[in-house]
Design brief:
16 helices; 3 strands; about 75% helix; Serine Threonine Protein Phosphatase 5, Tetratricopeptide repeat; mainly alpha; 3 domains
Length: about 350
């Protein structure tokens, strides 16, 4: 037998030995977990739920204490500090956060009776936020996000206004695009240029779920329409498949609910996708009559973009220069500077072409 064959055989024996030695420990760990789970189930069934409700604040304090302990002394697994080693198995306190939050919120809203006020919702949100922030510190964003629907579900049963669920859906759908909105160099990336692979699918799913819940009532607020617009963007697999006519219809509805010039400006951008830049430019002209928005940098940027699409590079450059003077955010300024350079290059090229003709 050659040395290489002997070495391979020895390695195989070591691997087999390691597998056989770890297997019993894995079984024992599973048996411990099964036993503890069974005991916990029996204890929960034997305890009056009213006594749990009365002690819900103590349960939440205990869970928060465990989360603080994990943050300071917990074991690291998979890059996250979320475990407390207990001999043959590990305890993950973040899994108990949902139960503790559910108990304390159910008790809180039940004691208040009637429809919750904004103050009630804010206090309940604060109680939920404490464990959420501690879990995010581990970091464990996935588990932290799952605690928030517990708050929303209980608040919904307690009489949460449907527009609050629509706001949550809107925030989740907008936040899902944050990773793709700025390049690695810190530059702004327009929606049609964003890498959809960077969008957070969990936040999109969360947004869809709460948008569906928000539509279960009879109330239709401007937040419902804004969430519907964000959901339509999120459903598109690529820029070519964005349902612009549907988005335009939604903006028409939003304009009826909130006839602000900013909404009208956003609608003009959608009009350019459906009816063309010339019609959108006409709408922008009417918005410019508002003195408060006449020097608004985003209005000038939209107008410049429309003029650029129509081939009027010199006029577009004037708009981008005005937008640059009004813009304060550095990424926005760099974006406008790139647009301005494009217009100036086009104007120079057009002038050279005219000179050759003459």
């Amino acid at each position: 037998m050659s040395l290489s064959t002997m070495a391979a055989a020895r390695q195989k024996l070591m691997n087999d030995s390691a597998t056989h030695s770890t297997a019993p420990r894995l079984y024992i760990s599973q048996l411990y977990a099964l036993g503890l789970g069974t005991i916990a189930l029996v204890v929960m069934l034997s305890v009056d739920y009213r006594s749990l409700a009365d002690r819900s604040h103590l349960i939440l304090i205990a869970v928060v204490g465990l989360l603080v302990y994990v943050m300071l002394f917990g074991a690291v697994r998979g890059g996250a500090r979320r475990w407390i080693p207990l001999g043959v198995f590990n305890l993950q306190p973040s899994e108990f956060a949902r139960i503790a939050v559910a108990l304390v919120l159910a008790k809180y809203f039940n004691d208040r009776r009637g429809r919750p006020t904004l103050a009630d919702l804010a206090i309940a949100g604060g109680l939920t936020l404490v464990p959420v922030l501690l879990i995010m510190r581990q970091p464990d964003l996935g588990t932290a996000i799952t605690v928030i629907p517990v708050y929303l579900a209980i608040a919904y049963v307690a009489g949460l206004p449907m527009r609050i669920l629509a706001i949550v859906a809107l925030i989740a759908l907008q936040a899902a695009r944050f990773p793709a909105r700025v390049s690695e160099a810190g530059d702004l990336v327009l929606l049609e240029d964003q890498d959809r692979a960077l969008w957070d699918r969990r936040l999109i799913a969360l947004g869809f779920r709460h948008f569906d819940l928000s539509m279960s009532g009879s109330e239709v607020s401007e937040f419902h329409v804004q969430a519907a617009i964000a959901a339509t963007y999120a459903r598109a697999e690529d820029p070519a498949s964005v349902a612009w006519p549907i988005i335009l219809e939604l903006y028409d509805q939003l304009l009826q609910l909130n006839a602000s010039p900013v909404v009208a400006l956003n609608r003009a951008v959608v009009v350019s996708k459906v009816l063309g830049p010339e019609e959108a430019l006409r709408i922008v002209g009417t918005i410019e009559r508002d003195r408060l928005l006449r020097h608004y940098h985003l209005l000038l940027a939209v107008k410049g973009r429309l003029l650029q699409e129509l081939g009027r590079s010199a006029d577009a450059a004037v708009c981008f220069r005005g937008a640059l003077q009004a813009a304060r955010c550095e990424p926005e300024r760099r974006f406008l500077e790139r647009r301005l350079k494009e217009c100036e290059a086009s104007s120079t090229a057009a002038g050279s072409q005219i000179g050759r003709v003459l």
